[in-house]
Amino acid sequence: MGQGEASARGTTMEGDCLSCIKYLMFVFNFLIFLGGSFLLGVGVWVLVDPTGFREIVAANPLLFTGVYIILGMGGMLFLLGFLGCCGAIRENKCLLLFFFMLILLIFLAELAAAILAFIFREHLTREYFTKELKRHYQGYNNTDVFTSTWNAVMNTFDCCGVNSPEDFKDSLFRMINQNHMVPEACCQRASETGELAYINKEQCLLGNMMFRNNKGCYSAVVDYFELYIYVAGALAIVVLTIELFAMVFAMCLFRGIQ
């Protein structure tokens, strides 16, 4: 009799524990679902954003590739969160195992992406962008993707060069346009009857500091997106932590289901 009661009590405790794991699994997967939705939203926003972030991304192949990686990862997390929720609620071992294997692959891929981002971080430095600007920027050739992208960035953020207008010294731009100290995109503009017009383009092209934008684009862009960068970094850490716990709960629930 005593053994029967102990066995029943143990079975009840196991059932309560399994139920607790099931609902924790559901909560973590719902958070993964929300994280995937957020990444999808960020990726779509970057691609269609009218304020110029798309041009900034296009200026660097690594960043441009990163946008599509964010979209892909967001879609996968969206799907996995949905599968994990269904597997937890229905206690389906096949769904749980499939979920565990896929989220493990995504977890490893995210770690690999973080390592690659650290290895190739020199491609996001001021020195790298300055070197590329001096080597490839032409000024007025809008058929050149690199040049038109930089013109869009400088017009959008009212900046000039990577660090300052001095970046155009000894550059391809100065070789092509020997009478211009800075490109037209560096000139200050003012609103007239709803349209932007240059204040004094001639003086600006001759290098007059009063009529050109003197702030570098690197600082302008970083200042504009500083908050988003920190939020994205914090979110990435949170997503990795949630994924880790979700894998643990998935295995516990998988082993507990009879």
Automatic annotation (TrEMBL):
The chain crosses the membrane at residues 23-48, 68-89, 96-120, 228-254. This is Tetraspanin. It comes from the Eukaryota. One of its GO terms (cellular component) is plasma membrane. Belongs to the tetraspanin (TM4SF) family. Keywords: Glycoprotein, Membrane, Transmembrane, Transmembrane helix. InterPro entries: Tetraspanin/Peripherin (IPR018499), Tetraspanin_animals (IPR000301), Tetraspanin_CS (IPR018503), Tetraspanin_EC2_sf (IPR008952). It comes from Pogonophryne albipinna. It is a multi-pass membrane protein. Signal peptide: none annotated. It is found in: Membrane. Its main location: membrane. Gene3D superfamilies: Tetraspanin. It holds the Pfam family Tetraspanin.
